[in-house]
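Fold this sequence, please.
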Amino acid sequence: MRRSKLMPEVNAGSMADIAFLLLIFFLITAAIPKDKGITRKLPAECPPGTICNIDIHERNILRIVINDNNEIMVNDNLIKVSELKEITKQFLDNNGDGRCNYCSGIKSSKVSDNPKKAIIALQNDRNTSYNHFIEVQDELTKAIYELRLVYSKKKYNKSPEDLSKKELKVVKEAYPFIFSE
């Protein structure tokens, strides 16, 4: 029997095309998860000419702690995530010193003086889940947004999205988001 010197070949001319099409197919059909993130402006060092070492009265600090079991404590009271937004709104809008003419809080002398002095202090454990941390951040952001929404409707009869830059600045100054982590 005679053996042929020619080896059989596989036509590989279209293999690159097939690989390219498979790559495109998997890129299009693969679900790309969207990472959650937080839009925050990180604090810089103390600006020149500003006093950064001021004493803050304890009633002007809303202390929020998330432990390793993802439980939330606000000023040493255990709460649910769903309660955090209302607690934050009541704390910020309190008007304890009576100087806030647009605040509609209960004017308790045990809670914050006014929104410009109120500080939200968040502390979390190393083992706190990221999703729970984001939930807490979202509730705090919702509280600030709702207060700003009410204020912008009252002052300008517009929602915050419809405000000019100057008007939005006034609204943000009325309810600043002073946050410590």
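The two ends are 85 Å apart (CA to CA). The mean pLDDT is 83.
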